[in-house]
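Dear all,

This email documents one entry for the complex benchmark we are building for the journal club exercise. For each entry we list the sequence lines for every component of the assembly. Then comes the predicted three-dimensional structure of the complex as a token string, followed by one or two observations. Please use this as the template for your own entries, and keep the labels exactly as they appear.
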Amino acid sequence: MRCLILALAGLWLTAMTVTAAPVAPTIPIVIGPDAPKLERFAAEELAGQFQRLFQARTTITETVPAGSDPFVLLGSPRTNPALAKIVGADWPKLSDQGHLLKSTTRGDRVALIVGGGSPVATLWAVYELDHQFGVRSFLHGDVLPEKPPACTLTGFDVTLEPRTRIRGWQVLDGSPLGFGGWGLDEHKQLLRQLAKQKFNRITFGVDPEQPQLAFDSTSFPVTGDTPGRKVFQGAKLFDNPALAGKTGDARTQALRELMAEIRTAAQALGMEVGAAGAGVETITVRGFLPRIPAGKAEVPAAGFILAAEVPGDLSPWVDFLARGSCDPQLTPTAAQEQLLTPILGTASTERVLLGFQKIDAAARLIAQHDPQFFQLSPAFVAQQMQSAAAPPAWWKQASQLYTEGMNEMYRGIRGTFHNPARPTLLYYAKQCECAVHYFAALEAIRLAGVARAHGQNPEAVLQLGKATESVYNALTAYGDVARDPSDRGAIAVLAAMVYRPLKAEVKALRKAGRKE
Amino acid sequence: MMHRHPLRTAVALVLLVSPAWAEDWPQFRGVNASGVSTSHKLPTEFSESDHVVWQAEPGEGIGSPIIVNGKLFCTAMTGPTTFTVFAYDAATGKSLWKRDLETGALPRITPPNSHASSTPAADAHRVYVYFSTLGLLAFDAATGKDAWKCPLAKPAYLMDWGAASSPIVYKDSLLFCMDDDLNPYLLCLDAATGKARWKTPRANMLAGYAVPVICEMKDRTDIVVAGTGRMIGYDPTTGKERWNCNTLVRTVMTTPVVKDDIIYVAVQSYGDQSRTLKFALLEWMDTNQDKKLSRAEVPKEFRDRFEESDTNKDGFLADDELDTAFQSKGNRVGGGNIIQAIRGGGTGDVTKTHLLWNVTRPYPSNLTSPLVSGDRLLVVKAGGLSTSLDITQGKANWELERIDNFGDYYASPVAADGKVFIAGRNGFVVVLQDSASLEVLALNDMGGEILATPAIANGKLFIRTREKLYCIGEK
């Protein structure tokens, strides 16, 4: 009987062993007892990364815990005595921006050093580790690798020393397509993603003495018949959430407070705030149609400040600028491949890279033929019609490139149903669709202008009707994927400056036609 | 002694014996999917805040509401894996009951589809719903208690569109057509018990979403289903095919309408006649564009079909193999536009004898079903382009005229009270005069995305936005 009980117990235990869930790894993170605030934040970020990737149990401690679990030493010999004790004289010479990942051992115990020449550089080392595990940081958020990485702290030996030491971003301008509509939460989210890309400076796109001047005309009505209106979630006006409902001095005060809060958030991530000085290049990127800028094959050595409108599609380029700051040999195409392959796999990456090429070619055509292409005003439709000029041939070429780009994105999307990168690809696909419709609208507006110039009113009405529908479809496609205030701002502006003037023009022409 | 006023007594008696609701809307698009109601006094102008008798927030879903015996039934996804069936008092919106059902792991679908996409059907006793991972379910209409369950194989779609087929009730049977890309069939269950009466394979079909309709003639009744390449009439008792009319196109998402013994169908399928399924496969599934499909490029549900079709066993489907791997050799139709009138009845291939007229101009939508009201057939497609045809010969009353509301259309037009109601995806409901000339009476903003076809019952219009449900009427 006893043997039977023992045997049954053994079977039960075996069954338990066989069916028990895998044990989550335990990873202690050791910081110095006097670790600066930014290094403590870096430790919290690292703990979050381990939990997200491996469901690890993490502790942040000031001494190396007993046991045999691999552990992380975070900081530098100057800030972390435990780290100093292990590396001894082997700590490399790092600048204040240099950062490293180095696997080592303490006896039989594996340790990973995650450190830098300054607290902010240590933070970058933390983000570099996530990158090494296959996580990719886009401007809108992180995308995890397609295949979960192995949870290991061995095999790391990465030292990075940025050659381009100023990597900056312009925030809070007054443009609805830029950062005029971004409140504090949106800015904080963006700053966090920029920190992961090791950006270290922000500038404000407004005059700090009179910021309100840039916000005179940044709100647009978005009620009723606004294509893509679902992105405004019932709001009647597109405006900066920090300024909504405020006017005059109250609005100016709210703006100043917003700037102060953005400054604090950036500094908490180790970023500097303010103008960067002579020699640093301001790279301006305008427009609301997709771009994958690959034109600049080099990262400006003296530094750069990126001043962008509608940044949602710029992640591949931002990634190139960031990675290329440490690796001057990196090309934009290689950077894109390294960005996408861990999250999409080889087959989808191949299609998406082709799509990026098409998008880049289309954007170059626009820049080459019409640098003012994205200038919008309430008179835009009237000006296009008054030109009475046939649509230029390059419009069709650009539209065709965007069509091909869209098709490649959809091919890349196939098989990514449960892939976390799917929304990112869909964003590009729908942006390309928006571009195709937009060019169709422009073409029809020009044809309407030609018809009107020839006294062919019914034809003008027909073409304007097509143009109105095309803009509607463009904004609806955009609205399907709009995810940040610049996207929403672009929809609001296009609705105000193209869609509604077109409807008014159709109405006026129909009325004129009836009188005749 | 109390006096009783004779008239008052008579009125009271009439009220006592009359049904509470003048007419029901018991399935997708109402009685026999016609889209037409005998209701009166429907408001012309309304909105999400105007002429709202009541409203509810069932949650995310695009199946249409139905109304039977004063109860409204609808469905929604109320959690990541929770499918809910709701019952409301149709007059007041009071919640009568709801049933939450765990769905398990959900299949792939393509936006803007929803997992809660099927429209229920109901009779006096039960409400019947379909869900992709659960099959067909029946609940007691009064209490919501389980009546029966009929698990069904999960459907599979080459393009990952996702399920959206809806059941109908015919006499004491529940009919359900599942045209997926893998194992399409028409199923008949005993409505009271859920037991299968017959199941007829529809092997020649590709994915489609037409709801079965009933064609009653002098001497018999047929179940009629539109699908890839053909309209088929079935015997309701046995499920055997009685006739086929081979004039349809590749992808049929719309439901025909029956008036008298004539079946009207309006379908658009991408491309022209030469565009068989193969071209869509090579355009969208051939990820590396090498003009053939590898195993990895085919959804896993179709792997067996892949292996069967890879006749030279090189691990790819190409050329002739692709022609017939997923589209039946005997039904390799392409795309196009058709609006047709087909006389019901007959035996065998009635293509040459029963097709009354056929219009191939680019009038119809691929998504919204036609409306037949009076002697007119109305179709509306993307961009708000509408066409009205005279049903006797298919001649146009007007063609491709805009109804002042752009965007996509998923909901089909419905009609009552001399008006036609057309809901756009953008949340605007256009109201037209139901006549032979186009007159837009109103453009009403419901504030939220609309894909579900509205329902009409007892002088009320029921509109389902993606998240909410509105009862519109005179208060």
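Observations: The first strand of chain A starts at residue 26 and ends at 30. Chain A has two domains: 21-160, 167-515.
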